[in-house]
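Write out the 3D structure for:
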Amino acid sequence: MKFNATTRSVQGSSASRRLRHAGRVPAIVYGGTSEPKNIELDHNEIFHALRKEQFHSSILEMQLEGKSEQVLLRSVQWHAYRQLVLHVDFQRVDAKSALHTKVPLHFINEESSPAVKLNAAVVTHIVTELEISCLPKNLPPFIEVDLGNLLVGEPLHLSHIKLPNGVTYVPHGAETDPILASANVKGPQEIEEDEAAPAQGDDAPDAPQA
């Protein structure tokens, strides 16, 4: 994905406020062999880009001063209650250096799994993203997790799936084989609650007559 940036010559909280009032977003790009550079972005462009999953997990092409640089999105600061981007951090990508980043998991074949088809189980996605290490050329936009063989009482671990070529999992602490998904059969009380709940779209009960 591509996005446009321009060099930001002024710094400080007052200058950042003026930028935001003008529909611009202060940002920074760092890493690699170059010094960190203050940049600014068009708010509408970056706002809509941030709504796309791939913008968060793919190598991006930043157009700056007529040149193209490959970067990764590292952090975004949002306004506390308004749909307003306050600041964005990007990291330059070195094609020869491994990078650490998080990629989303895409779960497939949940409805056709034995857990759901045979036991009407409820599938829980325990982990929705993984932190990985790889060279930039091997960075996947997402990792697919096939739940087609998921059974009740047998959680799906990371070791049960094949990571893309050149991609390794970066564990946190002692957790080297996290559970990605599990399936559990509803208890009697949950079934009763589901049956008692009104169907979506049902008309509200008539008001009592005077």
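The chain has a mean pLDDT of 89.
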